[in-house]
Amino acid sequence: MKNIIISVFTLSVFTLVTLFSTALNGQTTKGEFFSDPAHASGVYQVYKHGIASATPAPEGYKPFYISHYGRHGSRWVHSAESYTYPRDILRDAFNANKLTALGESVYERVDLAAKDAFGRYGGLTPVGVKEHRGIAERMFFSFPEVFSTENGRECNIYSRSTVVPRCVLSMAANNERLKELNPQINITREAADRYRYLNNSYKNPKSDSTYVIRDEFVKNNIDIDKFLSSLFNDPLYAEEHIDSPVKFIRALHLIAIDLPCVSHLNISLLDIFSRDQLFTLWQAFNMVMYYNTGPSSVTGKIAMDSSKLLLSNIIECANYAIANGNISADLRFGHDSYIIPLLALMDIEGMNVLEDNPNDIYKVWSDFKVSPMAVNIQLVFFRDEMSGEVIVKFLHCENEVKIPVVTDIAPYYRWADVKAYYEQKL
């Protein structure tokens, strides 16, 4: 495996120390991918929160405000066709006695998944509810000062989401848990089209070409006939009845990687793929996410520009909370297609690396690291009780992360420096 190549552009932005840590943070090896079966799910990976111990704040600094943006939790696959397309092909083959024993088993499992998902397409699963309740609980206990109502202190939270039901329900799960932990918390909740900064839709003008790259990659790295022969006992039947073998394989793969989000079914489809096939299919999915929403040199600027409204809102709300002292948290709930470019725009370590060779994207950028289900970015603000100085630290999936702003108190940064850095970007 060749070494990661850092572009000249990246070198102009970061110090060598930051470059080294960023590369390691984003790098994924085949061994790491296979170390955890969950990685095969990519952006469908069930949420895993940070396990590292928190770095104590400098003496005298106390947390007082949190700014948050989170993706909705685990969900069913978003469309009916995602289930019915492969299910119908398998059903017809089953009725024609054209399936192998494995093929019949796959048909039964896909049919079960399709029936469970009926009328719930894209909806939040119980796993997704659990994810957001857990995030809220850990936030509450990690920063109790922010959520305290002792001695007459008010805790006011402004919570909002896109109008998509899975985001609204993710917000509800989060807010409900906070209220359970402290019923005195005041939460204002909204879900309205006016909050375009939560998911300011953009169109990648080259998205069609990225899908071509993906499908060619699958064709070139998977023995399609061998895979189909594991499910169909008649090669000629499979050839005549499957319009696009690559589409069929991707459809099965999509259901397979989402099934961990639907844990009540207690079934899996990952066993129908070999290790190398899983790695290839993940790379193909990862390429599309990188090109369409990530920091690629092809479309990255379009994606990152779309998240500038959100970054502006984060700065504006933080300034208000600092100046007025009557807002404890701003909680926002949206989608992966917006938090991914936001993380790149904010220069969160490992989230903004450029790679022009599609075959090497996974070495510097991995979707399951950047945006699993319920991925969140938290800016936690601290104030010195004596001087009034405000500092901030960044949490990605509840892990402390770095940005390329000079600081002598890492992973904490002076808010004045952070604000200046981001305002320059805007």
List the helices and strands and how they pair.
Elements: H1 8-13, H2 16-26, H3 30-34, E1 61-71, H4 80-95, H5 101-117, H6 126-142, E2 156-161, H7 165-181, E3 186-191, H8 207-221, H9 224-231, H10 235-241, H11 245-258, H12 275-293, H13 300-306, H14 308-324, E4 329-334, H15 336-345, H16 361-364, H17 367-370, E5 376-384, E6 390-396, E7 399-401, E8 412-414, H18 415-425
Parallel strand pairs: 1-4, 2-3, 2-4
Antiparallel strand pairs: 1-5, 5-6, 6-7, 6-8
Helix pairs in contact: 4-5, 4-11, 6-7, 8-12, 13-15
Kindly summarize this structure in a few lines.
With 426 residues, the chain is α/β, with parallel strands linked by helices.
Structure notes:
This protein has 426 residues and is an alpha/beta fold. It has 2 domains: 8-75 and 124-201 and 291-425, Rossmann fold, CATH 3.40.50.1240; 80-122 and 205-287, no CATH class. It is 48% helix and 12% strand. The protein has helices spanning 8-13, 16-26, 30-34, 80-95, 101-117, 126-142, 165-181, 207-221, 224-231, 235-241, 245-258, 275-293, 300-306, 308-324, 336-345, 361-364, 367-370, 415-425; strands at residues 61-71, 156-161, 186-191, 329-334, 376-384, 390-396, 399-401, 412-414. Strands 1, 2, 3, 4, 5, 6, 7 and 8 form an 8-stranded mixed β-sheet that branches.
